[in-house]
Amino acid sequence: MALVVPPRVPARHVYVHVPFCARRCSYCDFAIAVRRVVPVNEYVDALRKELAVRFGEPAHAGLEPLDTLYLGGGTPSRLGGAGVAAALDAVRDWFPLAPDAEVTIEANPDDVSADAARAWRDAGVNRVSLGSQSFDRDVLRWMHRTHDVEQVGRAVDALRGAGIGNLSLDLIFAVPTALERDWDRDLAHALALAPDHLSLYGLTIEPGTPLGRWHERGTVAEADEDRYADEFLRAHETMGAAGFEHYEVSNFGRPGRRSRHNSSYWRGVPYVGLGPAAHGFDGGVRRWNAAAYAEWVRQLETGCDPVAGQEQLQPADRAAESVYLGLRTTDGLVLEPGEAARVAPWIDQGWATLDGARLRLTAAGWLRLDALAADLTVLRSR
Ligand code: SF4
Question: Which GO terms describe its cellular component (predicted)?
Fold first, then answer.
């Protein structure tokens, strides 16, 4: 693709995809690059090239300061202390950060040492999302995770010791029944670490993953719908009782500790995506980069924008997206005239509440998010 430098976008949120992982987790179908030795310099050089190809010379003038900067993956913590600092420096050379910007990196517990935590803090990281996934040793092994249970606690201590106080944990629920995972015990273990935020993801079986192959062979069965719903609702109750707001279908935060970066996606505002497989949105056009790390590097070495595709969102796309995004958070959705009758049965079932014209799904409603969003979208498209 020819080199094109579009006008600067007013996005106040930047996502950087760092694709490296030590190995592939059994359930993961993300765009990753498995590397024993991470090519830190090559990656940061390519990141700088992408910034230059897409946004011209490094400069701060004329750009809104960033409200959030997020290094996701893959496993950004595999860049190490100096690598994370170099990646953040690269972005800052093009996009100034607001003084109170939220700067997050995703980390695997086994990458977090006291030295790395201090280096990340010095580089400006003020929030870390730790991929803990479970506190059951056998479940971690089954997931092909590279860390053990104890390393999560040590990582939390190292991060807090370095002064990074805003910590999020990830947990995966609805794992196969045969694993005999004690979900309540895992939730209690997570709460005992006093995180500020928790993200919960229901296990899905994706083709092409080790889990997908086990499923094809019939050696693993997914959790049934009742178990999925039961664990989701138990998490809602447990986290609520512990003082967390269940503010998005998969996310819980202590008051004032919602993910500002992810909230920008749910508000549908522009953001820049950098790195292999990264998506971006300028308010009208959605674009995505070459997914394979080697292809992303190759495009940049030849001076090309690594874009793999883009689409102009049509009014119907925007309408469907606004319904879906509104319903997935506690911000809810403002109903249009004539829609109240359509959602009255949802309220009767306990799936939603109505506050004036603002409709919000309950936890039971979030279990039906796709179907309810589709129902309202069909109504709005008529
Ligand atoms: S660490 Fe994360 S991105 Fe990497 S393989 Fe595991 S789940 Fe996927």
Answer: cytoplasm
